[in-house]
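[[Sequence with tokens]]
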Amino acid sequence: MKIQEIYEYFDKIGCLTFSTVENGYAHPRIAHLNGCDEDGFYFRTMITKPFYRQLKDHPVISICGMSASTNVTHDKDGIPFFEPGYFIRALGDVRGVLPEVIQEKAKQNPDFRVAAHDLIAYPAMTNFCLYQGRGEIFDYDFEMSSRDHKLLRTRFSFGDMKPTIAGCRITDKCTACGLCLEECSFKAIKEGDPHYSIIPERCDACGSCYMVCPEAAIEPADSL
């Protein structure tokens, strides 16, 4: 995926969770992106905030947001219902951006105009760029109201990072017994000879196939 396409998924949500690291703990807060270009994704904070200090000490970020109702309803049996939607997450490395760079970008791209204005309105304002990273768009329809499978997972990367593969994997220990296919409610198992396989884009790594495999032929999912 191109950076602009990824940005549009984030921008549709608007308010996002930005998490930094300090003293071994994740520190989340709500913020939003203020533009993108071929160099990455941009956001801002003040030099007086812990957000700034954490980024300077550990220049990494994790960003996550959800496009759907956050309300969860339940049926008469207490089974939760999640409105179809998607969430998107990305993690990676950040670097500071000089004020004059933001001002110059604002002349070409209207997405940067608010950031350029705030540099004048708030002298303590500063900008960062998430210049390399990887992530995922997790498009879900658990009730399968609009398609015949629950998930469509799209992994992406930008800069010098490489994407990882979603979901669990079936190894060559598989004997094609079919138990995993019967157990998978995500329709993520594909028959094969001599081995079955998992469709990464559909796999939730829920563990159902992992638990029933008699040959221990299924490997848990990797981290994002």
Notes: The chain is about 20% helix and 35% strand. Residues 88 and 137 are 4 Å apart (CA to CA). The helical segments are 3-13, 50-57, 99-108, 113-121, 179-183, 208-212.
